[in-house]
Amino acid sequence: MAEISPLSRAQMARWRSFPPFAALGEAALAAIAARCQIRHWGAGAVLFQRGDPGGWMVALIDGRVRLDISTSGGRVLALRNVEPGECFGELTLFDGAARSATATALCPLTAYVLHRADYENLADDRPEIPAGMVRWLARRLRETTDQLAAVALLPLEARTAWFLLGALKSLHGVEESSDLPLMLSVNQSEIALVLGASRPKVNQAIQELVAHGAVARGRGHLICRADLLARRIETLSS
Description:
By secondary structure, this protein is of the alpha+beta class. It has helices at residues 9-16, 26-35, 92-95, 116-125, 128-153, 156-172, 188-195, 199-211, 226-237, and strands at 37-41, 46-48, 56-62, 65-70, 76-82, 87-88, 102-105, 109-115, 181-184, 215-218, 221-225. It is globular, with a radius of gyration of 19 Å.
């Protein structure tokens, strides 16, 4: 195995901020860092489209990416928005299949890119790396199940609260009991795409959350309380 330069504490902290790598030791993190490349994309850039050849995963450092599926008639279903510290496009590392969604940069991006051949070499040398990936994929599968249940079964106000609570957890790492007001730079159109609802109906749902103190409006952002969002979901789900 080729000699790999050690990482600084700051570099290790950055790599551990990505969920698949959170539990890895210093040597494994250094091995991943040595195999990854830094890429930049401008706002509006399409990183890949559904059906494109796969072959690489993205670990987002800065920016925001929308993953969506569109029909030939122009209808769009947003699957999720990816925030800094998250990864996407990971399934192709395992099967090399075509992309299952389109990834679009909502603002300028900086990210690490890990190619499949490099991942396979890492997996052969360090079995703790694929083990971490599998644990992360299992968590993602549970989150996807929760998303499907929320969209299918909950009223729109609860679905909107669920979306905002998930964004708080992803961006700030908060627990549902947190009573600190935290800012989210997300617009109603993005929420509407993910929840499969119209923008006016999402606006009404946010107004209801404002009335219950779970959300306050700012200029281009929302101020959210995780504990009150969780309480609204529980109330509306019963």
